Structures are given as C-alpha cells and as structure tokens.
C-alpha cells in the first residue's frame, strides 16, 4: 500500500544512528538509489516503486499488507527481544538497511535509560526521533521508554518529540497505516504482540499509562510547567474519541482550566502581546485559554450542555487569536443545531463594541470565516423569528464582512448571503439568498470604533449586489489561481441561487430593476445616479453596453460575466472549468447561448482537459437541468458539443442519462427539438483526420486519435440506439394508439405516397426514420447493426404507415436491391458492402420474419372476420382460441426485439382487440399475463405504457415514467454519479486513468430518478437519499465512495481480461445493454453476429496517462520504471533469487533459480508466470519484486 | 477538514503524508492523482507559485518549494482560498525549519523538525497555528505567547 512511498524514505533511515549519521543521512534520495543499486539490484527495484503503479485492488493491497506483515514480524520481534535480531533476519533486504525500525526502537530504549546525558539527548533529537518519524505508526512497546523520557528528561526538544510520539501511540487505531502518520507502513502491532506470547506489549497495555501520565501533566498548575501542560493536553486529544472514559476526563480537564482562566476581567486589547507584551500572569492565562479551547475544538460537540456553550462563548473574548477562532468555529457549529440558545448566549457580544465586532478586525482569516457562518446561521434561523432585532444585528455583521480585505472571508460572506452553507439547502433558501443579495443594502453602524479607520465613502449605505460585483470583478483580475477559482465558484453559486429564484418565479423582481432603488437616500455615490439605460441595451451584449446599463442588476451581471468570460483565458484548466460551470449556471434560459456554446467548443478542443473535469461539467449540465428544466434543449445542445468534440473523454453513461432526462424534461413541445438535438450528431460529417488544427466549429466532429475515434463510434451507436428507443416517445406515436387501421396502410403501397403520408402525419417520427435509414446504410458495421435494430423497434412500436415503410425498407436492405439507388445519395464509407448489399441480411431476416408473420396473421384475421361477417356466424371458442394463441405467439416474438406493453399491444391490429377481449373474459385470462416479462417486472412497462396521462405534461411528470427511463437506460452507475454530484458529495480521489471507466452497477438507487424532475418538495429527500452532503455525514459519503471504487478501472491485477481496450467492451454492453438484456434477452440467438465482440483493441497508449513529464527532469530510475510498465507487451524474464512461499491465493511460490516470465509490476510485486506449474500446481501469481532478478 | 497534506519529490515519491479522515483504501488513489496532477502542471513552475484543482467537493492547492512539491487537500471550510492560507503557513515554516527553500536532501535532513512543525500547524485535520514564530516556539516546547521578553 503505502509501501511505495515509504521506500523513498529509505535513505533517510538507512543511516546508522550511531557511527556516521550525518554523512549518510544527508545522501539524497536519488544518489542513494544509485549507490545502493550497485550493491543490490533488488534494492533499486524497491527504491522507486512508484505510487503510480499502485493499484486500488483490494487483493493486491491485502497481499502487500501481508508482505509488510511478514517483513515486520521479525522487526517487531527484534524490538521486543533484541537478542534474537540476528537470528531472525533471514531476508536479504534487511542486511541492506543499516538502521531498521528495530534498531531505532532499541536506541530509544537504551537512550532513555541514559537520558540525563547530553550525548544521549543529542542522539535522540538528531538521529533517532527524526528517523522514527518516517514510520507510519509507533510500536506501543516504545511507550514505557517514552514515558521514562517524559518524566526524567529535561531537554525541551526531546520532550517535544516525546509528546509527539505519545500522541501518535494514542491516535493509533490499532490497524496498520490508518493513523495520519504516513510514511513507511508498519504492521498491526497489537496483532504482533499477540503472536509473541512472551513479551508482547499492546496498546491496551500502554494507553492507560500514557493517559494517566498526560492527565497528571495537563492538570499541573505549576506556572513554570505550563508549556508542557499545553503539549500534554494536546497529546491527550489524540486519544480516540470512542473511549468514553478518556473523553470525560478530557472534558473535565478542559472545563477545569476554563473555569479558572475563562473569565476575562478586562476587555481584550489588540496588540497586547506585541513587542511590549503584557504582564506574565495574563499571558500564561491566555496560553492556557488557548490550549483549553483548542482541545475543546477537537472534542465532540456537546450541543445540549450549557457549560459547553458557555465556555465556547467565553472564548470569543479571549486574547489569543487562535483561541477566538476555535471558539467561533465551535459556536457556529452549535448554532446550526440550536441557533436560539447560541444567540441568547452570545447576547451582547454582537452589539456594537462587543467582542464579535472585534473579530471583524481580528487578524485570523478562518475566525472571520466562522463569524460569517455563525451570523448567517443565526440571521436565518426560524426559531429566532420573534427576535428580529437579534437577527438584524447578526445580519449587519455578516454584511460588514463583505468589506473584508481577505477574499476568503468576503466570498464566504457572499456565499452565506446567497444561502449556500452546505449542499442541503432548499431551493427556497437559495432563492431567498438571491433576493437578499439583489435587494439588501449595507449600512455600516455608526460605531465609534470604526470611524477612524473607515473612510467616509465606504460608510455610505451600499447595495450588496454592487459591493459583491465590484469585489468579484477585482478578484477576477487577480493573478492567483486559487483566487480566480474561488471567484468563479462564487459566480457559479450566484447562478445557482439565481436559477432557484427563477424557478420559484421570483425573477419578476426583475434584474432590470435598478440595483439602487434606494435613490431616495441622499447618500449615494455619484456614479450610481448618472446613467439609467433601459435594460434593452444590455441584452445586446458586448463590452460597450456593459458600462451602459451598469446600475441595473442585469447590467452589473452582464459586466461581471464579461470579466468572467475573459477568465477563460487562464492557463489553468481547473479555473477554466470552474468558469465554464459558472457560465452554465449564469446562463439564463431566455438568452442566447451562442457565446457559451462557442466558448465550450473552443475549450474542448484543448487536449489539456482531463476527463474527470469534463465529466464534472457534464454533471453540471445535469444539475443545471434539474434546476431549470426549461433549459433542456439548450443543455442538450451543449452536451452535444461534448459528444462531438471529446467523445473519448466523457462518460458516455452520464451523457446518455442527460439525453434521456432532458428528453423527458423537454415536455411535449420540446420533445421533437430535444430528439433533434441528440441525433443531430448523426448528421455531422465524419471526422477528418488531422483536422485538429485549431478548428473550433461546433458543427464538426473531432476525433484525432484512434481512441477518440472509437469513442465517437460508440457515441454514434448510442445515439442511434437512443433514437430507436425513444423516437416513439418523442413522436408520441404508438401502434396501440394508432388511429389508422392497418388496412389503410396496406392500400397505399406506393412508397412515395407512403412517405409523404408518414411525414405529414408525424414529422418527428418521419425524421427519425430518415436518420435511421441513412445510418443503416452508411455507418460502420456496428452502427448499421444498431440502426437496423432501432428500425425494427420503431416498426414494432409504431402504427401504420410507419411500420409498413420500415418493413419495405428492411426488405430492401436485406435484399440489397435498393442499395444501389440509395447509396449514391449518401456518403459511402468505402467499405465493401458485401454480396447481400449491406451485409445485414443475417441480422434482418428474423426481423423481417416477425413483421411478415404479423402482416400475414393480420391478413388471415381480416379474411376470417369477413367470412364470419358474410356468413353471419358467431366466433366459436376454438376459433377464438386459435386467434388468441396466434396473438400470444406473436407477442412473444415481438417481445424478443423490443419492449411492448403486453396488455395493450395488438400484433394482429386494432380489430383483433374485441375478439381477444371476448376470449380473455370467457377464459378468465388476465391481460397482464406478461408479468413474467422482465420489462414489466422492472417497471419499463410504464415507460411506453401510457396509461398515465401525466406523462404528456412537463411540469407534472410521472415519477414512474422517469423511474422507468432510468431503469431502461440500464446505467445505474451514471445515475449514482449524477446523484452524488447533485448532492455535492465526493471526497474520493479521482480516477487517474484517462480511459472511460465503466463501473459495475452496485445498487439501484431510484430515489434520484424519482426526484429528478420534482421541483422542490422532494429535494430534501433527494439529498437524504444520497445522504452525503452535510459535513457530519461523511460516513455515508464514504460508503457511496467505496462502492464507487469497487469498479475502478485501474489496471487490474486479477481481472481475467487482458489489456484489451478496457472501455470498449463494457460500453458496448452498455449502449445496447437494456436492449439485449431486458425484454429481448433471446435476441442473441437470432442475430448472433451482433454479439461479436469488437476486435480487441490493444491500445498502445494504455499507459499514456501514466506518463510523467517530470520523469526526464527527475531521476532515471523513474523513467526505467515507466519502461518496465510500457514493456508489458513484450515479455520480460527473470530468475528467482530466493525461495518464496505464497502467502495468499494470488501469490505464487518460488524456488531459488526458477525462471519466470514477468508480466507486469504492481506496487512492489511482480505478476509472473512460470514455465511449468510448481509443486502447488500454480502457474502464475504475485511475487515480491525483490525476490526476482530481471534478466 | 484538511483531508491531506502531502509532500513529494519531483520524481513523484512521497516524502511525507498526513491524512485526516481519508479511508486508507482511498489514500493511494489520492496519491496517484496528485502525482499525476503535479507531473502535468508543476513542470517549470516558479517557486511557491500556487496551483489549484478541484475534484467534486474537494479542493486541492499545490505548489513547488525548492526541491519538493507540496499538496494540500481540503473540503468544506478549507476551500481553495483557505488552503492557500494553510499553504502559506506550511511553506513559511518549512523554509524556517530548513533555513531556505529546501532541496529534497535538506528536506530529509530536517524531516523530524518538519514533522513537528506540521504537528503544530494541523491538529486532527483542523488548522491550528498560523504564525511562524509561534510555531517555532511551540516546537521548542515553549509557550505560544512568550512569557519573557
């Protein structure tokens, strides 16, 4: 695991502490590697086990841990029984390390005994303790010696280290590597102590002793001792908070200190500890106050406890700025839970001249940030509705923070005003935030303390929006990337609040209104009064007018956005990404988005964008859609740019989900446009090789390398599939609702007429058909296959004349007869189309057969009906039965191709409905016999089953429908990802591999789908369902993350799949996923060619993303590391240096001298293959790198 | 929460790591990600020039200091600007401990002292001391506010 990083520190500790410490320990890492390389090639191997190869595979981790465990058992034993050290060290690598952990430990034991000697102290400070710091955790058996040092040693530096290590022993959760130490991994000491029955020391043994010692020190009131007292208290807080006994003792100590020193007799004076200093007593008091509050900050909150609140509030008046910060942090957290109590406890502190006002001028940035949060929480608390005076006091402090010199504080204040505190806020809160920002004004209090350092001008009342805009504009001129990033983020949040306000219909307090509608006040800046252009001017965009309509909110926004847009020129992609997100959020649904579109298009042409970032923006589109469903079409257009520009980098799942949700969200009017927006990608000219040179047109596909060409191919497939699946929905055309009886269509067999009739009846569907037909001809073979399938789906689901039209077309396609005529009209891709014309004959035959059967059965039915009518006979039961059986058989057949609602679908045409109904009633057959149909079971049935009229109205979209869409799409991970994003979750590390990752579905979380289009009421549930937004619930974030990691596409050690192009296969399944797997799972039997895997695409750039540009600049060994990995294609051979016994299933036993083929290296392990199976019958597995010499 | 403070050399090997509240199985992912980030962006960077990145709800600020790269990862109140403050504290106290911008070798020489500095700067994932002098006093086991002048 951390093995990789740890080894780089080896040189630090390879120096023997006793003889030549200084010389050896100063050898830099690279030179150390070269010197040791000469001694042992194996050592070099280990030296630069890059973290890059370190994979997220659990198994490998376990294996690595086991190795560590094995390695360190001897070390630990040695530590406990120094005599045995030499006997046990059988591993060669030990001999390469002059200073092992064991030796360090032994030194501590020895030096502790002689700690009164100067030389011992020097040894400890300069050699032993610094080297010990490299290790992840500290062996509990060191505790007695450390405690001895603690009691006997006088040297301050030694003592400081002692506290450091004692804290680490306390913090150790018992499992290796879990404490925040970092460095060289260490084993689970407790487990080791158990193994060693003789003299094992576990944490359980030493922790009480340490705690006792530290407690005694922390309660020592001796003035001279108080520096140590501070450190002892600090070390104590590292004890795990699960230990109630220690916790209560800590509370006791902290409250004890605060009881004594908490009361501040005199008002704090700034600069009291400057050069002149204060009196000693008050300084010591202040130090103790600081220590106590810092400790309190690390203790769990105790919301109901008045003493806790009291002490925290006391802290605001303390002299130590860090103490004040902690106190504010605690209070602002408490305020979230109980704003009333906190507001009462703060009492007069907030009043002018109170301690809270002093914080405004405190030098500590984070203290002021906490102040902003506190003020926001209290000023928006419902429970304080009856105390508007208190609220307005806090509000005024919050507004004053807008003037703060630090961007961090000012931005926090803006975010608070905008109603953003975490990600749980509701739309109303955000909308109210926008209202506040655009409506409120800042009036600085006439406090005497302010008068001298504030100029007259700033003390005039100012509209907040104006202050904010001015501040943001100046921030955007900053050169610091973090500032730019943060400013763009604030703009994004502004957009969010604005969108929320629009969603709630608050926009009619329109932005055209003047920001300064307070012009009755006489104290205005002159520049605010001079111009009052109507907002019409600002709509025309451009720099010139930005100045014109400056004093309307819209005008200010326009001028801000102008500045924001220029920030796109920043060289940092992360800043640019944030800017684009901000622009997406600030995009109003009614304004032209051409500019945004071209910005995005030109940005995406930049190859520097990492995939994760692009996907983040794609997810932002999701979020934007959720906030404003009206923007569905706009967002689809934007998403299309991603599809065409960077097909290789974006997550196709998320994109398709966006298509889908936007299609539904577009509503009945927008459905057509939405479908167009998605499938327009099919109309674009194919990518031209080498056309990357600065070409930024939106309507051009870029796919410069084979990888993105392949990805584009997949996207086109997905789009075709999407079109087939959704054309009927978008066109609202279903066979079972078709008004046209099949007979009519049969009569107009003239193809031209038919097409004309079709397009006049339903242009959406006709357009979709045209596209699909073209794809069936001119795409690559994968696209043609999917197009043919899509056409069949549409044929089955549509009524006449569409079905007949498709039938005709498929027939022609199968025969190849029409192709010669049509191919002239379309671009040929130069592929030999084969003897059958299109090569699709095999695939199409069964489809045609089904349609044939349907038509002939319909004919038969009509004949029978006529004969019955003519003879005026009743239908006999056998006849009905026969009819019903035909109906069922056809239904089964049809279900193989696509989902249809069994209860409603009539393969024999509408006229059969009556007869089938008679038979069903007579024999008591439920219409929903199709329950065994997986589509019904999973709820897809509701999709096309328009029993719910609600589906036609965009604002009351049916949950089930949406739900079904999500299911139908079959990419639950995408749903999860979007869900997670919307909830603002995600502390997980991103996937570095640039390949698109397909993660296996973990669980289906339909909450999101359900709430997707719910505007407000469900929002809370949404957040709760993903349970990840509030800071307290990090636990649940982690669970969702760990599920996330389950499918990480790190080059897998144990996957049976070799290094074929990882993403192509899963996505192939994905794009056709629900089609194959859901209702038509037997499809494979019919058209087996389509199941052919695409040819394995062994990407030469497999490790492209691992390339380290710094390699050349850094060390050579790193480069060679890369080569090792790169060469995984051509086999490498090696010889076993030592015997190795497999410690797990995935490991391989070795005999010295055995020859192996090295497949690849990972995290200090080789995956090797033997020439012949070993004694255990295994051929391949993992062995430690050091055990094999590469030949 | 300050999720992580990591210090690596240019070759991408981590010299020092402090994680807070990051599950152990994710640490490796973070390290891999950060190495890649540094490799992509830090080439030719000026000393102490700040770089920013974000990943979902997590912010990252990183920089080059002499021969080492410093990465700080934070979330919630530790956004990119707060991390900038933290970065400033860390770089200045490392420089203080080493006497100048450290080479990798100097950094390893002062490893113990730097660990103590970090211990005073970040305490259980929360920023603690920000003043250089104060940190210096505290790692010498002296009180934070001097009692003697």
TrEMBL record, chain A:
Establish whether keyword DNA-binding is in the entry: no
Gene3D superfamilies associated with the record: SH3 Domains
Q: Where is the composition biased (Low complexity)?
A: 1025-1040
Q: What segments bear the compositional bias annotation Basic and acidic residues?
A: 1116-1126
Q: Which UniProt keywords apply?
A: SH3 domain
Task: Give residue spans, biased composition: Polar residues.
Answer: 1056-1071
- Which PROSITE patterns does the record cross-reference, listed alphabetically? SH3 (PS50002)
**One Pfam match:** SH3_1
Q: Quote the SUPFAM superfamilies the UniProt record gives.
A: ARM repeat (SSF48371), SH3-domain (SSF50044)
Ranges for the region named Disordered are 1016-1042, 1056-1132
Top-rank taxon, per record:
Eukaryota
Domain called SH3: residue spans: 1129-1191
Q: What is this protein called?
A: SH3 domain-containing protein
Write down the species. Answer: Gossypium raimondii (Peruvian cotton)
From TrEMBL, chain B:
Which residue ranges does UniProt annotate as crossing the membrane? none
Q: How does it sit in the membrane?
A: Peripheral membrane protein
One GO biological process term is: intracellular protein transport
Keyword Membrane in record: yes
Matches recorded under SUPFAM superfamilies: SNARE-like
- Swiss-Prot/TrEMBL keywords: Cytoplasm, Cytoplasmic vesicle, ER-Golgi transport, Golgi apparatus, Membrane, Protein transport, Transport
Q: What is its main location?
A: cytoplasm
Record's Gene Ontology CC terms? COPI vesicle coat; Golgi membrane
Which ranges carry the AP complex mu/sigma subunit domain? 1-136
Q: Which InterPro entries match?
A: AP_mu_sigma_su (IPR022775), Coatomer_zeta (IPR039652), Longin-like_dom_sf (IPR011012)
Question: Where is this protein localized, as stated in its record?
Answer: Cytoplasm; Golgi apparatus membrane; Cytoplasmic vesicle, COPI-coated vesicle membrane
Q: What protein family is recorded?
A: Belongs to the adaptor complexes small subunit family.
Q: What does this protein do?
A: The zeta subunit may be involved in regulating the coat assembly and, hence, the rate of biosynthetic protein transport due to its association-dissociation properties with the coatomer complex.
Entry protein name: Coatomer subunit zeta
């Amino acid at each position: 695991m951390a093995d990789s990083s740890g080894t780089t520190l080896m040189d630090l500790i390879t120096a023997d502490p006793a003889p030549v410490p200084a010389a050896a320990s100063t050898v830099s890492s690279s030179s150390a590697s070269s010197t040791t390389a000469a001694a042992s090639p194996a050592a070099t191997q280990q030296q630069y086990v890059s973290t890059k190869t370190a994979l997220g595979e659990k198994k490998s981790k376990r294996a690595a841990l086991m190795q560590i465990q094995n390695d360190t058992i001897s070390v630990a034993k040695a530590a406990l029984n120094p005599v045995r050290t030499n006997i046990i060290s059988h591993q060669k690598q030990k001999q390469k390390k002059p200073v092992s952990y064991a030796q360090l430990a032994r030194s501590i034991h020895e030096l502790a005994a002689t700690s009164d000697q100067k030389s011992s102290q020097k040894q400890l400070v300069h050699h032993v303790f610094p080297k010990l710091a490299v290790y992840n955790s500290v062996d509990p058996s060191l505790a007695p010696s450390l405690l001895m040092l603690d009691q006997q040693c006088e040297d301050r530096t030694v003592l400081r280290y002692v506290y450091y290590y004692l804290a680490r022993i306390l913090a150790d959760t018992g499992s290796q590597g879990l404490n925040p130490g970092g460095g060289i991994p260490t084993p689970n000491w407790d487990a080791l102590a158990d193994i060693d029955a003789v003299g094992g020391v576990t944490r359980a043994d030493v922790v009480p002793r340490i705690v006792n010692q530290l407690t005694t020190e922390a309660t020592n009131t001796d003035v001279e001792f108080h520096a140590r007292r501070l450190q002892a208290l600090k070390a104590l807080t590292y004890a795990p908070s699960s230990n109630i006994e220690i916790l209560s003792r800590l509370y006791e100590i902290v409250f004890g200190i605060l009881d004594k020193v908490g009361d501040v007799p005199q008002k704090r004076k700034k600069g009291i500890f400057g050069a002149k200093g204060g009196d000693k007593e008050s300084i010591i008091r202040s130090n103790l106050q600081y220590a106590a509050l810092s400790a309190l900050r690390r203790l769990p909150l105790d919301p109901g406890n008045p003493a806790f609140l009291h002490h925290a509030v006391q802290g605001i008046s303390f002299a130590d700025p860090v103490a004040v910060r902690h106190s504010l942090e605690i209070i602002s957290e408490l305020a979230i839970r109980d704003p009333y109590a906190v507001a009462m406890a703060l009492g007069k502190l907030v009043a002018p001249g109170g301690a809270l006002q002093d914080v405004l001028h405190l030098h500590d940035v984070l203290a002021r940030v906490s102040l902003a949060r506190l003020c926001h929480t209290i000023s928006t608390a419902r429970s304080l509705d009856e105390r508007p005076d208190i609220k307005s006091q806090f509000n005024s402090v919050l507004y004053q923070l807008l003037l703060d010199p630090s961007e961090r504080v000012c931005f926090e204040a803006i975010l608070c005003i905008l109603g953003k505190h975490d990600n749980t806020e509701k739309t109303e809160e955000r909308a109210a935030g926008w209202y506040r920002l655009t409506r409120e004004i800042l009036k600085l209090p006439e406090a005497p303390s302010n008068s001298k350092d504030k100029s007259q001008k700033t003390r005039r009342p100012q509209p907040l929006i104006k202050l904010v805009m001015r501040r943001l504009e100046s921030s955007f001129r900053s050169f610091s990337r973090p500032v730019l990033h943060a400013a763009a983020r604030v703009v994004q949040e502004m957009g969010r609040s604005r969108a929320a306000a629009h969603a709630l219909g608050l926009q009619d307090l329109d932005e055209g209104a003047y920001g300064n509608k307070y012009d009755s006040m006489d104290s205005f800046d002159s520049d605010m009064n001079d111009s009052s252009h109507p907002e019409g001017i600002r709509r025309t965009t451009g720099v010139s007018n930005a100045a014109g309509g400056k004093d309307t909110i819209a005008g200010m926004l326009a001028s801000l956005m102008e500045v924001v847009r220029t920030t796109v020129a920043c060289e940092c992609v992360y800043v640019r990404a944030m800017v684009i997100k901000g622009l997406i959020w600030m995009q109003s649904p009614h304004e032209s988005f051409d500019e945004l579109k071209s910005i995005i298009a030109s940005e995406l042409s930049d190859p520097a964008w990492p995939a994760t970032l692009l996907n983040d923006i794609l997810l932002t589109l999701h979020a934007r859609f959720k906030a404003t469903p009206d923007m569905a079409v706009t967002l689809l257009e934007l998403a299309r740019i991603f599809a065409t520009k960077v097909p290789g980098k974006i997550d196709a799942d998320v994109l398709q989900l966006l298509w889908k949700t936007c299609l539904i969200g577009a509503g009945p009017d927008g459905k057509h446009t939405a479908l167009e927006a998605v499938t327009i990608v099919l109309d674009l000219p194919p990518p031209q090789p080498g056309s990357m040179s600065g070409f930024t047109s939106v309507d051009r596909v870029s796919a410069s390398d084979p990888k993105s060409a392949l990805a584009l191919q997949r996207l086109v497939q997905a789009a075709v599939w999407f079109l087939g699946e959704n054309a009927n929905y978008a066109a609202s055309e279903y066979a079972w609702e078709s008004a046209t009886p099949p007979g009519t269509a049969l009569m107009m067999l003239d193809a031209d007429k038919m097409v004309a009739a079709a397009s006049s009846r339903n242009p959406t569907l006709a357009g979709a058909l045209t596209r699909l037909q073209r794809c069936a001809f001119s795409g690559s073979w994968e696209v043609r296959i999917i197009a043919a399938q899509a056409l069949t789906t549409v044929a089955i689901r549509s009524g006449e004349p569409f079905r007949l039209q498709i039938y005709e077309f498929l027939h022609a396609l199968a025969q190849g007869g029409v192709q010669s005529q049509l191919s002239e009209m379309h671009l040929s891709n130069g592929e030999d189309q084969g003897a059958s014309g299109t090569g699709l004959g095999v695939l199409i035959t069964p489809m045609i057969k089904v349609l044939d059967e349907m038509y002939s059965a319909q004919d038969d039915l009509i004949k029978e009906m006529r004969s019955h009518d003519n003879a005026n006979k009743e239908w006999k039961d056998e006849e009905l039965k026969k009819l019903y059986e035909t109906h069922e058989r056809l239904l089964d057949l049809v279900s193989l191709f696509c989902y249809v609602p069994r209860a409603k679908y009539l393969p024999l045409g509408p006229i059969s409905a009556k007869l089938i109904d008679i038979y069903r009633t007579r024999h008591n057959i439920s219409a929903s016999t199709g329950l065994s149909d997986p589509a019904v079971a999973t709820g897809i049935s509701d999709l096309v089953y328009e029993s719910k009229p609600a589906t036609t109205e965009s604002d009351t979209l049916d949950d089930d429908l949406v739900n079904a869409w999500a299911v139908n799409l079959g990419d639950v991970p995408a749903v999860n990802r979007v869900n997670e994003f919307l909830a603002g979750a995600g502390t997980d590390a991103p996937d570095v591999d640039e390949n698109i990752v397909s993660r296996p579905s973990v669980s289906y979380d339909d909450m999101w789908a359900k709430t997707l289009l719910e505007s407000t009421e469900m929002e809370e549930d949404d957040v709760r369902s993903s349970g990840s937004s509030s800071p307290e619930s990090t636990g649940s974030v982690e669970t969702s993350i760990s599920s996330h990691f389950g499918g990480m596409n790190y080059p897998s050690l144990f996957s049976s799949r070799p290094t074929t192009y990882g993403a192509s296969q899963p996505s192939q399944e994905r794009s056709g996923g629900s089609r194959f797997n859901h209702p038509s799972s037997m499809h494979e039997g019919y058209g087996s060619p389509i199941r052919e895997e695409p040819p394995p695409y062994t990407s030469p750039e497999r490790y492209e993303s691992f390339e380290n540009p710094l390699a050349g600049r850094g060390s050579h060994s790193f480069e060679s590391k890369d080569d090792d990995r790169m060469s995984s294609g051509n086999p490498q051979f090696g010889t076993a240096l030592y015997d190795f016994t497999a410690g797990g299933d995935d490991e391989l036993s070795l005999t010295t001298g055995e020859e192996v083929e090295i497949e690849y290296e990972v995290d200090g392990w080789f995956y090797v293959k033997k020439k012949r199976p070993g004694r255990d019958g295994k051929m391949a597995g993992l062995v430690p790198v050091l055990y094999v010499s590469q030949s | 929460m300050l999720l992580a403070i990591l210090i690596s050399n240019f070759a991408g090997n981590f010299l020092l790591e402090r994680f807070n509240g990051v599950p152990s199985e994710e640490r490796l992912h973070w390290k891999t990600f950060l190495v890649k980030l540094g490799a992509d962006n830090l080439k030719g960077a000026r000393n102490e020039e700040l770089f920013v990145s974000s990943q979902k709800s997590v912010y990252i600020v990183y920089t080059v200091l002499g021969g080492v790269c410093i990465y700080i990862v934070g979330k919630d109140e530790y956004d990119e600007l707060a991390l900038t403050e933290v970065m400033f504290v860390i770089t200045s106290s490392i420089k203080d401990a080493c006497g100048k911008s450290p080479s990798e070798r100097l950094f390893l020489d002062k490893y113990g002292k730097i660990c103590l500095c970090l211990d005073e700067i970040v305490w259980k994932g929360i920023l603690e001391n920000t003043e250089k002098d104060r940190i210096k006093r505290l790692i010498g086991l002296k009180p934070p506010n001097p009692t003697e002048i």
